[in-house]
């Protein structure tokens, strides 16, 4: 049993968190996105603020209220999220990438609504979006302690570890989203924290409780760094 107060533990610590999906336009009325609810990122922001941190939440389009005391920046696309993230990152101690960033965007966004054609199929050319957390982790001056998330359906810890290494992260929260009710729109979640020299499983629990546990681990590793 640890006997310390979570309250105010993060006093004077500045944290940026990305949350939710990004949305990539196809034309003025259509887009590509994903099922991220933003709940995990918002829960992390709430937990960090309750622990005394100064929290900036960069959010894609979600249906969630801003946690008390948190500064929120709303964005739509991955490119907008990258710009906001880089502007915040160098002013912060810890950066947590919880957003489900669209991996690709439409190469040429149509300026007018696309009309249905006589053809039975059409093709959309997609181009890769920038990797936001890798860009933050690659900063050479004022680089924050950088934490990623990985939602996987198989080989969860191994794939997460690959991402940790490839993106040069300090810590990654691996999330098993295979055939369970966990993750995405659920109010419960379980993760395994993975870092270069270890891992720790955090059991399924309400996202608010899990968020506190994750923040405590992040802070412990940030402090030890
Ligand atoms: N991420 C990011 N920018 C991207 C894609 C992902 O910042 N363009 C971040 C996510 O916020 C998360 C981590 O990278 O913290 C892992 O996201 P994930 O989608 O699992 O990684 P990808 O590299 O996109 O790999 P995958 O092929 O599994 O989607
Ligand atoms: Ca991805």
TrEMBL record:
Residues 11-219 form the DNA/pantothenate metabolism flavoprotein C-terminal domain. GO terms for biological process: coenzyme A biosynthetic process; pantothenate catabolic process. Pathway: Cofactor biosynthesis; coenzyme A biosynthesis; CoA from (R)-pantothenate: step 3/5; Cofactor biosynthesis; coenzyme A biosynthesis; CoA from (R)-pantothenate: step 2/5. GO terms for cellular component: phosphopantothenoylcysteine decarboxylase complex. Binds 1 FMN per subunit. It catalyses: (R)-4'-phosphopantothenate + L-cysteine + CTP = N-[(R)-4-phosphopantothenoyl]-L-cysteine + CMP + diphosphate + H(+); N-[(R)-4-phosphopantothenoyl]-L-cysteine + H(+) = (R)-4'-phosphopantetheine + CO2. Keywords: Decarboxylase, Flavoprotein, FMN, Ligase, Lyase, Magnesium, Metal-binding, Multifunctional enzyme. Its EC number is 4.1.1.36, 6.3.2.5. Residues 15-225 are annotated as: Phosphopantothenate--cysteine ligase. Its cofactor is FMN; Mg(2+). CTP binds at residues 97-99, 103, 113, 130-133, 149, 163, 167. One of its GO terms (molecular function) is phosphopantothenate--cysteine ligase activity. Catalyzes two sequential steps in the biosynthesis of coenzyme A. In the first step cysteine is conjugated to 4'-phosphopantothenate to form 4-phosphopantothenoylcysteine. In the second step the latter compound is decarboxylated to form 4'-phosphopantotheine. Catalyzes two steps in the biosynthesis of coenzyme A. In the first step cysteine is conjugated to 4'-phosphopantothenate to form 4-phosphopantothenoylcysteine, in the latter compound is decarboxylated to form 4'-phosphopantotheine. In the C-terminal section; belongs to the PPC synthetase family. In the N-terminal section; belongs to the HFCD (homo-oligomeric flavin containing Cys decarboxylase) superfamily. This is Coenzyme A biosynthesis bifunctional protein CoaBC. It comes from Rheinheimera pacifica. The lineage of its organism: Bacteria, Pseudomonadati, Pseudomonadota, Gammaproteobacteria, Chromatiales. The gene is coaBC. The chain holds residues 179 to 403 of 403 of the full protein.
């Amino acid at each position: 049993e640890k006997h310390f107060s979570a309250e105010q533990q993060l006093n004077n610590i500045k944290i940026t968190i990305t949350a939710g999906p990004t949305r990539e336009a196809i034309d003025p009325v259509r887009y590509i996105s994903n099922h991220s609810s933003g709940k995990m990122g918002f829960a992390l922001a709430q937990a960090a603020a309750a622990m005394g941190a100064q929290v900036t939440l960069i959010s894609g389009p979600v249906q969630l209220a801003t946690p008390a005391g948190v500064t929120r920046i709303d964005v739509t696309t991955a490119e907008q999220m990258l710009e906001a993230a880089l502007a915040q990152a160098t002013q912060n101690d810890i950066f947590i990438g919880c957003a489900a960033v669209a991996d690709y965007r439409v190469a040429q966004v149509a300026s007018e609504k696309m009309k249905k054609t006589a053809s039975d199929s059409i093709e959309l050319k997609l181009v890769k979006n920038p990797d936001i957390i890798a860009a933050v982790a690659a900063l050479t001056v004022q680089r924050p302690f950088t934490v990623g998330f990985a939602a996987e359906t198989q080989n969860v810890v191994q794939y997460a570890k690959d991402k940790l290494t490839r993106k040069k992260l300090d810590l990654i929260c691996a999330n098993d989203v295979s055939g369970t009710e966990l993750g995405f729109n659920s109010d419960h979640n379980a993760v395994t924290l993975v870092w270069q020299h270890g891992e720790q499983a955090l059991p399924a629990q309400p996202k608010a409780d899990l968020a506190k546990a994750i923040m405590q681990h992040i802070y412990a590793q940030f402090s030890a760094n």
